């Protein structure tokens, strides 16, 4: 049985760049099996927050607790190994490698076999099958042999999410998964995310409000590096501060 | 690898092994130098081509293997001295140097690896017990299974065997799950970290393997010439290996050997017609970097042009 | 007081060597700061300068003319290299450019061997400084004193250029952030070419000055590159102040090291280089990495 309590707990997290407080004493929790959206205007510190949680950036203060263990200060690969995976705002793929290989590397990351010096990748049927399954899940089965760099933008975003998913995470951080997508592609991505098993907890940064409201159980609003509001979609929608600062600007 | 390619390799190896039967001493020596530098270049290619780590200090391991072989063979000429001690020494050095070097990347990695190999050079050049400027001479050859390698044919076959083993091993490593991880690291190190790979460990292991094989090359070099000098450590030796890898084509083991062959042949054959082999080499290298970044192998596959 | 005299001689030698390293490393550090390229051919440019000096002296007999002409010639070579070979590579990974410069090491060394032969050629110091002077209790070649003075003058001149002129501020901006500088409407390509040529010219100048001390031989470029790299690393990539500090330190360290602890000297210097790269990659005065 996994430990009780929230899956992710961010406590008083801050990150300064000189005098600039990119993230300022942010605290919130994400419950198990929750679908959480993180919204806010550009520059609100959302991606920085992701960088802090995943260990890419060290916080100036505060701590992060994941699945009952403190993970502040751990390097990114250690965080990932604990079941916290992340997709990137800008496509961060293995451009010259095939779609299959992109996914296979992620699937293989969970295993120990990657130090195998003399074996053959073809014999790793388990990993390959896992990669093919993942390709199917993100709708890239037709493109297995295509180098990632040659995919269309929408397909690349699908692969981007696919890689993060392939590590079989408990918590998946998605940074603007539908960025730059057409309405049709956005719809496909939303379906994909809705179709994910509940045991994969989601924390999504999104600008597309339709996606947010169709997916999210709870919404956290970030503004100038601080938590402005945190609650159910209805509560957030009704919150006048949020409206004024963000939804009221009329964009997205 | 297709059966055709495997067969081609066997045929080439057989031809190489039989070469002394049809050629004189000088061509055979050239071929042997190609084999040895081929091993050295292939080991660097694992580092550069697969892992994307451009090292200007690979001569450290080549030289170390050479010196350890020299000292060991003078003390007790056997198989251990000939191959095992040099390989282990090089691997150990690579572990220590690599531990520090992988903490930096790009230009700083170049400069750090260069600094380390120059340390070896400075030490070997100065100290009497390593022969100072002149190095170690009069190194005897070992005996393998009762056959003395001092005779030409057994030594040639020994070299071909070591070359084949080194090439085969590096080939397997490059294709292995580990090799694929290296490739992923080369492509996008950040993402590899993000999906859970302890990138540093993989880089270090690659560095150690490459260093070990380079040490074997150095040991063979000592046994070919019966001597070793501090020049083996100098930064331009590392540079020459880089030249070979690039001219041949980074990321392909065959390319590394081709590059070694091109270099050695340029050096020896061209110099019978003109003394200007270095000039031609330099120009060739510049042209390759500019127009054929895929090297000879890339050119053979049609990848030529200014855009990389 | 033979010990003190010996000390003074070594210290002066260290300063003279430091002056050569300074002129050489300024170009190397500016080129790296602005273009991110470690110009492995920089030592070869130094060598070209020495031979250009030799040629000019051979034809005209005048060291002073050589001092003027040789750097100019090497600067032109720099323009050639940058425009024809480096510029097409700017969109490629920086390592490709570094490797390209390595090709020039071979090219230049053999070119010089072709034209001048492989033997060491001595270069006479100018008549004005061809004798020794007596200082305190020892005699010292006046040419080396000239080198030290020249180095000092050049340091001041370069400082004025970089810190006090518009051109210098463009260079400083380019070293700090080339993209931004281009964004300010400055023709950054011309600045790149200019900086590379300028660095090459300084390397050539260093070579001419070095001639009477070191003589000229084709492999001199390959040997001096390493100390120059160490100076740049220790001083800080992209910093003029760093080049000065670095050359003073390395100049003295290498000179005294070779005189008193030959076995350990060079080894220690490489250890220092390694430590700097590991612990403080931006050296003494360089900018923390982008």
Task: Tell me what the structure shows.
The complex is a heterotrimer of chains A (252), B (308) and C (290). Chain A has 252 residues and is α/β, with parallel strands linked by helices. Chain A has a domain of 74 residues. Helices cover 33% and strands 23% of the residues of chain A. Chain A is globular and about 55 Å long. Chain B has a domain of 198 residues. Chain B has a two-stranded antiparallel ribbon with strand order 1-2. The longest helix of chain B has 27 residues. Chain C has a two-stranded antiparallel ribbon. Chain C is 77% helix and 3% strand. The radius of gyration of chain C is 19 Å and the shape is globular. The mean pLDDT of chain C is 89. Chains in contact: A-B, B-C. The interface between B and C is large, with 41 and 45 residues.
Strand order of the largest sheet of chain A: 6-7-8-3-9-10
Spatial separation of the terminal alpha carbons of chain A: 41 Å
Order of strands, main sheet of chain C, comes to 1-2
Mean model confidence by pLDDT of chain A? 88
Assembly state (oligomeric): heterotrimer
- Please write the string of helix (H) and strand (E) elements of chain A: EEEHEEHEHHHEHEHEEHH
Overall 3D form of chain A: globular
The largest pleated sheet of chain C is described as: 2 strands, antiparallel
User: Can you give the mean pLDDT of chain C?
Assistant: 89
Task: Report the sheet-strand fraction of chain A.
Answer: 15-25%
Would you spell out the secondary-structure blueprint of this structure?
The complex is a heterotrimer of chains A (252), B (308) and C (290).
Chain A: E1 8-17, E2 20-30, E3 35-39, H1 46-53, E4 61-66, E5 69-70, H2 76-81, E6 84-86, H3 99-108, H4 125-137, H5 153-166, E7 171-175, H6 183-194, E8 201-205, H7 209-215, E9 218-223, E10 226-231, H8 233-238, H9 240-245
Parallel strand pairs in A: 3-8, 3-9, 6-7, 7-8
Antiparallel strand pairs in A: 1-2, 1-4, 4-5, 9-10
Helix pairs in contact in A: 3-4, 3-5, 4-5
Chain B: H1 3-22, H2 25-50, H3 59-75, H4 79-101, H5 106-126, E1 143-144, E2 147-148, H6 152-175, H7 177-187, H8 189-194, H9 199-225, H10 235-248, H11 253-273, H12 277-291, H13 295-300
Antiparallel strand pairs in B: 1-2
Helix pairs in contact in B: 1-6, 2-6, 2-9, 2-10, 2-11, 3-4, 3-5, 3-9, 4-9, 6-7, 7-9, 10-11, 11-12
Chain C: H1 2-35, H2 42-60, H3 63-86, H4 94-116, E1 132-135, E2 138-141, H5 142-164, H6 166-176, H7 178-183, H8 188-214, H9 220-235, H10 240-260, H11 262-279
Antiparallel strand pairs in C: 1-2
Helix pairs in contact in C: 1-5, 1-6, 1-8, 1-9, 1-10, 2-3, 2-4, 2-8, 2-9, 3-8, 5-6, 9-10, 10-11
